[in-house]
């Protein structure tokens, strides 16, 4: 087996990635929508933070049914974001600063306005017909009972040819048929187009959905549910490894790049298969398991408080299973998830400590960490009381569907406040001026009203800010091999409020203690205390005077011992 070796780290193993959601990052021309010139104007800020790689959510031409995750033209830039010339300048400016660029690769589906789909739907014998999944109805209904991830059926009837097409997401996002070798070759060609421009990798959108189980079986339908569960037939399907290995052979292996596959429903066993270097598929995956721990059965909108033991067990499982076998990505946030400080921390009196504690807990683990814009300043969830202030298609469709099922408005809003994707999509808070310095125009989505208190300008001016805590974590990863390669061991598994673990590499050790509660906590462990007394404090979020097993609310401390 080929494993990763100390002293020979790949660049993406010591890197920290920063995700930009371009629509909400920085508006350069005052139209209320973030754009490429806006990004260029903030590169110094990212350099100051010290991140190595930018992952850019889609900037391709799109009618924006799902904010760019519905692509109309893979080789053109969305007009609202700028031009290809702007893109080239951005890439050059990034590279000049030693930063790398990872693009979003959205190839499970296209927009229904993509030329391939326009052709495909035009007639049954069009050469593009089999670029998508077309199927006649079954007993006058959809071919299967599957629900789409954005509410409603996963099939849409098309009058023109009297057949249904498959769309796992919105009906403006028809699924590409990866069984067709022509589709795969088109995708590979497009990937080479971007790699030849000099981009440094891809984040692959729902990439473990590209192989579907043949035969179109119905999914299990739970009582009270409108649709059957299609996920057993679309996640990690029968040809997924073959497709990824082909993509690797034909494209990825020819460049020095990084790849991360977004993979809902990937277990640790599957993740090892996807990321083991000798299998030549992708470098790492995004798991969803830790993001599902605060959901009750029936999906993300059914709320359940997090039990810290579940989180410890889950992250520990990923840390140990992939060690020496594959590679982890580490994340709390992205454009689909609520803000972590509101979710697993505290966004009121302990916001600053909680944000630093969460960062510490994640960044001291093994893997490649991802920071989502605004996380580094502790941005928080938003509660718009008026539904019309929400923009996200997933949220709006869910609202309508639940209302029709008899849910009451207040309960639906509660789910949106806790889980809605727009929590992550309000504009980046740059300063305390109007619209948080994001735009001089009318922002496409309202700014979080807490921008006067939480913004980058304030963070840069305060040496104890969350921003500088992240800066230190990013720098430590580059300085200390133990963070990249050390073995992970969970400590005090049964403590209900403290997440404690150590990392061990040769005779070096890191001890990480994190209090996930707003109460003081205590560990009972004389041996650990003795070790802490011989160690130095590497990082802390509250000032410590002496080694102690007492932790203040949301306190985090890292000891280093050799
Ligand atoms: C996952 C993306 O992260 C999400 O934003 C998008 O809506 C779906 N895939 C569909 O592309």
From TrEMBL:
GO molecular function, one term: oligo-1,6-glucosidase activity
Swiss-Prot/TrEMBL catalytic activity: Hydrolysis of (1->6)-alpha-D-glucosidic linkages in some oligosaccharides produced from starch and glycogen by alpha-amylase, and in isomaltose
Any single Pfam family the record assigns to this protein: Malt_amylase_C
Nucleotide-binding is among the record's keywords: no
Primary localization class, coarse: cytoplasm
One Gene Ontology biological process: oligosaccharide catabolic process
Protein's cellular compartments: Cytoplasm
Signal peptide: none
Domain (Glycosyl hydrolase family 13 catalytic): residue spans on this chain: 19-425
Alphabetized PANTHER family for the sequence: ALPHA-AMYLASE FAMILY MEMBER (PTHR10357), OLIGO-1,6-GLUCOSIDASE 1 (PTHR10357:SF184)
Annotated NCBIfam families: PRK10933.1
Protein name listed in UniProt: oligo-1,6-glucosidase
